[in-house]
Specification:
Layout lengths: L2 H18 L3 E10 L17 E8 L12 E9 L6 E7 L2 E4 L2 E12 L12 H9 L7 E12 L4 E11 L12 E11 L3
Antiparallel strand pairs: 1-2, 1-9, 2-3, 3-4, 4-6, 5-6, 6-7, 7-8, 8-9
């Protein structure tokens, strides 16, 4: 099993008791279009998708109130076309701006199973072919930044439009940093309401 999926599966299994103890506030699942063009489109045709994505969101611990009370989350994303999968964790903030509507910026850390660089030496024709079909992430460790627009549909559930960007930002990796942008729709269920 690929590294990112294995880590995510272990995290979800370890957190099952937390869900039972009402530490989990929300569960989310959805479909993300993998590797879309936002601003820099030279890599947007390299990997296809969609990704199936799941996320558990936890209650904000009291000590996080000093940074506006973000909620911790864990996430796992599986690419149905056999491309890059990832899993990780982070923090998300939620700001209501109209009744039933909210914005949700997030920042996290993920590991993935995509390419770091070409396995072929420079000048080898196979290297050019590999580069046409693969994003070079440059590091197995990536930041995950995101922004979601949430719409509550019922008391316990809703939908969100989610954007996420994965990149090491030349901070936690070196070398190539092509990154990836994903956009999709996810449904969420709130526990305990």
């Amino acid at each position: 099993m690929k590294r990112a999926l294995a880590v995510t599966t272990l995290l979800l299994a370890a957190l099952a008791p937390a869900a039972h103890a009402q530490l989990v506030e929300e569960a989310r699942v959805g479909v993300m279009q993998h590797n879309i063009c936002i601003t820099d489109c030279k890599n947007a045709d390299k990997e296809d998708g969609p990704n199936i994505e799941g996320e558990l969101v936890f209650k904000s611990p009291d000590f996080l109130r000093y940074i506006l009370g973000p909620r911790p989350y864990i996430v796992g994303s599986y690419n149905t076309a056999g491309n890059t999968n990832f899993g990780g964790f982070g923090l998300m903030w939620n700001w209501d701006f109209l009744s039933g509507w909210s914005l949700e910026p997030s920042l996290g850390y993920v590991i993935h199973d995509g390419a770091l660089e070409s396995p072929f030496p420079q000048g080898d024709p196979r290297s050019d072919a590999f580069a046409r079909d693969n994003i070079y992430f440059g590091s197995k460790d990536l930041f995950r930044t995101g922004l979601a627009l949430n719409r509550d549909i019922g008391e316990n559930w809703g939908l969100q439009l989610q954007y996420e960007h994965l990149s090491h930002g030349q901070i936690i990796g070196n070398g190539r940093n092509q990154g990836v942008d994903n956009v999709g729709v996810r449904g969420y269920w709130r526990f305990g309401n």
